[in-house]
């Protein structure tokens, strides 16, 4: 998402950048998490996960919603005299720095001070049955080499993809908001989607939650702020003032995801509700013009 966003930013496709990043959060939060609950619920009557970790993740996601809602509301509800474009840029860049620091703190929390909580089972006490360790299929050197090669390939692919967005929208009649918010995120999140659903079917719900919500946090609290700062460096005035409808949808989706997961348990019906919410959003953007 970061490589694709920077490539689109260089071409001045600000609306596509914002829509694709918000769409990535929605895709992971609703579609990926919903499919995890749905597929896991068809294999098991009910599944459990760490409610404490889930609370922390949802709280961080809602904080990012507040960070997006404030500049969006200011730029759309206030007059230029009350909220100048330069003020919007300054607020967006300051907010971006704060969000990146929060993401670094979140990583330190997970890997440092509270790694025992993150590694704990559904009850949060760490009393989870030991599972046999799986042997790695790749060495560290091979994994790094493969990751580097894939990153280079994605960078080249992103150039071709961003260059063709305008033409695809004009020839197919599909609006750029739908391409950015729905099509690109589904394609970009395919790996996370498959991984999360695969582990949910094995009843490893803490890992599935970590993939779905963790990816949403990564986009909202790290990637989007980094793109704002990258635009600052490249001379592109990209801000955190998003589409008001997309911001509202994001806030409601985070609240909905928190509602269905706050007790640390899941079933197939909750997953179906999350997937249904994503379908409603897709339907709305499919019939929305550019």
Indicate the percent of residues in helices: over 70%
What share of the residues does DSSP label as strand, in percent?
under 5%
Count every beta strand, where a strand is a DSSP E run of 2 or more residues: 2
- Report the sheet with the most strands, covering strand number, pairing sense and barrel closure: 2 strands, antiparallel
Helix and strand pattern: HHEHHHHHHHHEH
Low-confidence stretches: none
Structure annotation, total helices: 11
Q: Radius of gyration over alpha carbons?
A: 19 Å
pLDDT average, as an integer?
A: 83
First-to-last CA distance: 22 Å
Q: What best-fitting shape do the alpha-carbon axes yield?
A: globular
Arrangement of strands in the largest sheet: 1-2
Class by helix and strand content? mainly alpha
Concise overview:
The chain has 11 helices and 2 strands; from the N terminus they run ααβααααααααβα.
What is the fold's blueprint, element by element?
Blueprint: H1 2-10, H2 14-43, E1 47-48, H3 51-77, H4 85-113, H5 115-119, H6 140-172, H7 176-188, H8 190-201, H9 205-234, H10 244-261, E2 265-266, H11 268-286
Antiparallel strand pairs: 1-2
Structure write-up:
This protein has 290 residues and is mainly alpha-helical. Helix content is 78%, strand content 1%. It has helices at residues 2-10, 14-43, 51-77, 85-113, 115-119, 140-172, 176-188, 190-201, 205-234, 244-261, 268-286; strands at residues 47-48, 265-266. Strands 1-2 form a two-stranded antiparallel ribbon. α2 (14-43) packs antiparallel against α11 (268-286), α4 packs antiparallel against α9 (205-234) and α10 runs antiparallel to α11 (268-286). The mean pLDDT is 83.
